[in-house]
Design goal:
Layout (H helix, E strand, L loop, with lengths): L1 H11 L1 E5 L5 E5 L4 H20 L3 H15 L10 H5 L5 H11 L5
């Protein structure tokens, strides 16, 4: 059953490879500008900061400070509805997260 699922996903959406355990790994082809844009912008910002701050000690302190500033927002983010649906008894929480997030989906 699991292999049939992976074959169907690969035929429709992506490429497959095998990890160390021999389990097929699927990479969706849907990765596009919406998802890759964050990495591109982050890389450009990092290069700009590295050019502005020539000392690597200062650069590491600044980046560590930015990470420490963003880290508390992790507790404000809700769990993924897909993950919540896989946990017994958390279906109501998953649907509440979906109802909360639907106005923001464009």
């Amino acid at each position: 059953m699991r292999c049939n699922y992976y074959r169907k996903v690969v035929q429709c959406h992506g490429h497959a490879d095998r990890d160390a355990a021999g389990v097929p790994t699927v990479w969706p082809v849907r990765m596009g500008p919406r998802t890759q844009g964050f990495f591109i912008v982050g890389t450009c910002l990092l290069a700009g900061m590295a050019a502005a701050l020539t000392d690597w000690h200062t650069l590491s302190y600044v980046l560590g400070g930015l990470t420490a500033a963003v880290l508390p927002t992790y507790v404000l983010l809700p769990e993924s509805p897909r993950w919540l649906l896989t946990r017994p008894g958390r279906e109501a929480e998953a649907f509440a997260v979906l109802r909360y997030g639907i106005p923001y989906i464009s």
